[in-house]
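dumping this here so i dont lose it
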């Protein structure tokens, strides 16, 4: 107890396993966590915490493992959540993106974007994700911001930003000026504020869609404001090939030359890199978001040519994303954890790559840093935001419980997420989101999906007859 008496708390959860992710990576087998308002005020052995706080409510946590909320650093929250599974899984990257995904995005209405964002936010929360970084393919940002805010998740979002003149009749100067103005306007309208869960972020589409002028302007804007940029890069050889053809250098070397690399930047996919590009990334502090679910479905070559073990060895910050790419599961970051822990062990026949401990750091602390929230989320430490997850131990995959970190990465998945708190508010309770009528939501999505696909000029293919 402090000299000033017990610490006031709204509630305390006692007798739980707690994986703190604090500076020493302390784990408590019989721990307690106390919350006041939107902050954690005490964490430690149950007896010590109960003696030091005066809580209005005491919750029995003996059924649960408490962890920090997971951070999904790359997810498309519109378009794909309400069309999941309809894109064939036998297409190459370019066909998948240009013939299937982009037409779907461009056919959306604001109402459909809201519906998709609501569904994706619900799915993330129910899988233990409390913070996300959007992938930069939102068309109507105000509509999506409103939908996401109503669900109660924390996020960094951005509107579709690109400026490359693809058509001969395009005015490049106008496209660049409009893209920079759009980015600046959204950063002004939704600034990062400690009291708000949602803020705008520098979400560029990336690949080969941004001119050097846009890269430079976006870099200046976010550095002035202490924010970050997220962009797609080098999922396919098309990206380095484009930069070689137009600049004489591969993608990452060119971005280094124009001053775009740095710890403000998170690049997603980053599979088709050579050694010189890896050096540039490592030396600059640039962050990398790996999306193993998408790499597997799209056949990107992550394990065949990807240099993720080399990045890890060089100290490149690696975080995780679930992406989209019409995956069956868009929001279960625990599945991505499992894949990161296993794929490179198998590909390299080297069992010490990406230990469960390192993978959990990628999904929490490193993800928080990539979202500009280091020291705010990603760990269960007094003073940090009360964003945390209660995993249900009364399930077969959690029994017996011996090494809790191995259990989280190798045995558990999002199906065992019983409850979730964001800003100290219980947004998932007993496997249901508290802010949304889930049954009504699922019915609306089922009704909306076929119309969106038809409007995009596409169909729902299936190799087997459907009567």
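and the seq i came up w/
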């Amino acid at each position: 107890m402090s000299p000033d008496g017990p610490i006031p708390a709204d509630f305390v959860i006692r007798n739980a396993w707690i994986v703190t992710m604090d500076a020493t990576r302390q784990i408590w087998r019989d721990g307690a966590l106390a919350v006041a308002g939107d902050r954690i005020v005490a964490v430690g052995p149950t007896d010590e915490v109960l003696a030091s706080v005066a809580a209005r409510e005491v919750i029995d946590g003996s059924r649960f493992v408490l962890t920090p909320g997971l951070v999904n650093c790359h997810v498309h929250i519109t378009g794909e959540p309400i069309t999941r599974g309809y894109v064939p899984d036998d297409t190459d990257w370019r066909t998948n993106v240009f013939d299937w995904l982009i037409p779907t995005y461009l056919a959306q209405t604001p109402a459909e974007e809201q519906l998709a964002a609501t569904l994706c936010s619900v799915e993330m929360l129910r899988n233990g994700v409390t913070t996300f970084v959007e992938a930069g393919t939102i068309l109507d940002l105000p509509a999506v911001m409103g939908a996401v805010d109503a669900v109660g998740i924390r996020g960094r979002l951005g509107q579709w930003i690109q400026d490359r003149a693809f058509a001969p009749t395009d005015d490049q100067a106008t496209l660049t000026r409009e893209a920079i103005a759009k980015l600046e306007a959204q950063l002004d309208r939704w600034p990062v504020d400690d009291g708000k869960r949602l803020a705008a972020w520098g979400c560029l589409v990336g690949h080969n869609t941004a001119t050097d002028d846009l890269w430079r302007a976006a870099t200046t804007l976010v550095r002035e404001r202490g924010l970050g940029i997220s962009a797609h890069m080098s999922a396919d050889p098309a990206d380095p090939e484009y930069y070689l053809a137009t600049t004489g250098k591969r993608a990452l070397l060119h971005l280094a030359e124009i001053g775009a690399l740095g710890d403000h930047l998170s690049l997603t996919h980053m599979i088709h890199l050579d050694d010189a590009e890896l050096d540039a990334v490592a030396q600059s502090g640039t962050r990398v978001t790996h999306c193993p679910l998408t790499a597997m479905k799209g056949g990107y070559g992550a394990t065949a040519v990807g240099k993720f073990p080399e990045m890890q060895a060089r100290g490149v910050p690696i975080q995780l994303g679930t992406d989209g790419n019409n995956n069956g599961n868009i929001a279960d970051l625990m599945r991505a954890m499992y894949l990161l822990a296993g794929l490179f062990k198998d590909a390299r026949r080297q069992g010490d790559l990406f230990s469960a401990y390192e993978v959990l750091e990628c999904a929490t602390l490193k993800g928080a840093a990539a979202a500009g929230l280091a020291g705010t989320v990603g760990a269960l430490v007094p003073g940090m935001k009360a964003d945390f997850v209660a995993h249900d131990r009364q399930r077969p995959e959690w029994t017996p419980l011996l090494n809790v970190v191995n259990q989280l990465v190798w045995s558990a998945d999002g199906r065992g997420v019983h409850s979730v708190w964001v800003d100290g508010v219980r947004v998932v309770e007993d496997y249901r989101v508290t802010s949304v009528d889930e049954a009504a939501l699922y019915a609306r999505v089922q009704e909306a999906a076929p119309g969106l696909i038809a409007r995009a000029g596409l169909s729902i293919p299936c190799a087997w007859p459907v009567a």
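The two ends are 68 Å apart (CA to CA).
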